[in-house]
Amino acid sequence: MRTMASRAVRATIGALIVIVSYPVVLTSGGLWLLAQHRDAAGAYTAVTQQVRTNGYALVIEDVDALLRQDAPFARGGQTELSLSA
Predict the structure, then answer these.
(1) How far is residue 48 from each of residues 10, 59, 63, 66, measured CA to CA in Å?
(2) Pairwise CA distance, residues 61 & 66, whole Å
(3) Sign of the alpha-carbon torsion through 32, 38, 43, 47
(4) How many Å apart are CA 45 and CA 67, to the nearest integer?
(5) Residue 75 pLDDT > 90, yes or no?
(6) What is the pLDDT of residue 13?
(7) Could you tell me if residue 23 is left (phi over 0), alpha (psi between -120 and 50 degrees) or otherwise beta?
(8) What gap in Å lies between CA 39 and CA 34, rounded to an integer?
(9) ∠ at Cα 82 (81, 85), nearest 5°?
(10) How far is CA 65 from the centre of its chain?
(11) What is the mean pLDDT of residues 47-72?
């Protein structure tokens, strides 16, 4: 008959395996979702546009709305974008 200590050790090892595997499953699921945004050839593409301004700055009023429209998979909580040229 198995002792209570051996059952506790097995239960602890099982719980540790579950705790360690949970982030791996979430990460692989996220990478799988990201991979769904490829084109038919398997590449990731983006639309590029030439932008001109008379001043020294280009202002995007709502970066979050821009990402919701163009790249919803890239959003995560508070969105912030910083560019320098």
Answers:
(1) 56, 17, 16, 14
(2) 9
(3) negative
(4) 15
(5) no
(6) 94
(7) alpha
(8) 12
(9) 140
(10) 18
(11) 77
Closest CA to 49 of 70, 65, 34, 80: 70
Per-residue model confidence (pLDDT) at position 11: 92
Residue pLDDT, tens place only, 8-55: 899 999 999 999 999 999 988 888 877 776 677 766 666 677 878 888
The 3-state secondary structure of 16-43, one letter per residue: HHHHHHHHHHHHHHHHHHHHCCCCCCCC
CA distances 4 to 1, 11, 12, 17, 18, Å, are 10, 11, 12, 20, 21
Write down the pLDDT at residue 62: 79
Tell me which residue has tokens 């084109």: 39
Whether the model pTM is above 0.90:
no
The DSSP call for residue 7 is H
CB 60 within 8 A of CB 81: yes
Residue 38 carries which side chain, given as an amino acid letter?
A: R
